[in-house]
Amino acid sequence: MIWSDSGYLLSKNKYGENSVIAEFFTENHGKISGIIYGATSKKIRNYLQIGNKFHINYNSKNENKLGYLNIEIVKILTPLFFENKKKLSCIISSMSLVKLLTVENQSNINIFYLIGDFYEFLENQNWINRLIFWELELLKLVGYDLDLKKIVKEEIIDNKKNYFVLRNNEKKYVPNFIVDKDIEVVDFNQIFNGLKLIGEFLDKSILKPNNISHPKSRIEFMNTIKD
Fold first, then answer.
1. Going from the N-terminus, what domains does the chain have, and what CATH number goes with each?
2. Whole-model pTM above 0.90?
3. Would you state the pLDDT for residue 181?
């Protein structure tokens, strides 16, 4: 099997002395993995950064065996944020979510475009707000639509509107901006609680039922923005 495509690097792991096994999310083939020989050479190593966009040539003699990848850099993205600890951590976390939630060799053009959208809002001042809606859209595209508008209840306290869901007869408050889809909110506590809410949904609906631990990179990102 031989094909060419473009894709974003999701992960890489050392394979032998000079090679890596890399995973990409591609435009036409979805998530794929393969061996990149000579990946530890200075020429390749410098741009083989998680999140960068590549042109990929894939070659496999057997569908049941790992293929071989020849890559060319298309767009350098992640190194632009090397000096921003929070955004760099966000990139690693977001790519790991794509890796975790997608299925090998299952194409989804909308997820490919969603990764491109990620880098567009990462430049914005309110990028963390937009990240929340980006994660919600990713969950929706893989079949887990957290449509809070349909499940929340509303109450007024001190002339202020609040949203909540009932869980074991206890109220779990939901940040208003997620329900009202207000991406301009600037209250960090609300934003942080929004990210925690998505993490709890991820654990309850996807990870724990499949005996999967919460992604370490997302935990590290949450700790980074909390500092």
1. 2-77 (2.40.50.140), 80-226 (no CATH)
2. yes
3. 85
